Amino acid sequence: MEATARWEALGTSVGLRVSEPTALAAARAAVERELAAIDKACSRFRNDSELSRINTRAGRCTQVGPLLLEALAVALRAAELSDGDVDPTVGRALELAGYDRDWRLLDPPAGRPEPPFAITARVRAGWQMIVLDRANASVRVPSAVKLDLGASAKAWAADRAAAAAEQTTGCGVLVCLGGDIATAGAAPAGGWRIRVTDDHRSDHSAAGQTVTIESGGLATSSTSVRRWSHGGHTMHHIIDPDTGAPVRGGWRTVSVAAASCADANTAATASLVRARAASAWLDQLGLPARLVDRQGNVTTVGGWPAERSVGALAA
Q1: What's the burial of 29, exposed, middle or buried (CB within 10 Å: 0-12/13-18/19+)?
Q2: Which helix (H) or strand (E) holds 258?
Q3: If you write DSSP's letter for every residue of 230-284 in order, what string do you get?
Q4: N or C: at which end does the chain have fewer Cβ atoms within 10 angstroms?
Q5: Torsion angle in degrees (nearest 10) through CA of 181, 187, 189, 193
Q6: Are 174 and 88 in contact (CB under 8 A)?
Q7: Contact 258, 268 (CB under 8 A)
Q8: What does the alpha-carbon distance between residue 157 and residue 172 come to, in Å, rounded to a whole number?
């Protein structure tokens, strides 16, 4: 029998499930310790975070701790694997879109669509200009560049938190941070049942699908949930690095299963940027994925189970 706990951290909801009820308290303590350390290292909204220090020292080499060093390596790997569609140098673009503080403090959506933006060409992707020296534990970002790890760090945090809880308790663990889900240890009989919807906070009455995973991670990225009003228009947090603006058109929600939550999230976020080209890309990678367009029509690739029944995903 599973036991569960829910709370708030990292600006989102945290869900914890363990396969052994007596391990819940110890698992939660392990997850809370991991998330607190990651917040101190990686938050764009904390003046005392290591990431904020890097951003204030843009153009100069800055020493970083092992946790942020790993987070930056994960972010750059995501950028490389996605050909720059998931780019950690979009911090300034997010601020220009109005995302300059915890999104729960932003004005609610205005009900007007995103404004049109002109596409701006650039010679070199921003992420390729980051110099990460793992041997010397240092990083240098170009002047005027601001890093934001939101597109990778939350999923990576879920992976780390699940691993920490499993190491502490020895039982099967599932950690959900927003729409990012990571597992560690042995799954309960029949696997971990997960409800996939546009909004991870929705109950089972919302449109979606229930699937199971035995291991690995499952991530959902959506343009329909984390939204706010800025300049009289509705904005969201998925930035197209080529335009510096929130992505428009294509899919509204993409869910992907992979060997880790970090990899699943990279593929899901990049798919929103790639729009209609995403389904062929995901299929080529062999990743099970569920893509929902703005009208609610569903496309599945890579062996994602049919919606008529609960299906198991390989991860």
Answers
A1: middle
A2: strand 251-258
A3: ETTEEEES-EETTTTEE--SSEEEEEEEESSHHHHHHHHHHHHHHGGGHHHHHHH
A4: N
A5: 0
A6: no
A7: no
A8: 17
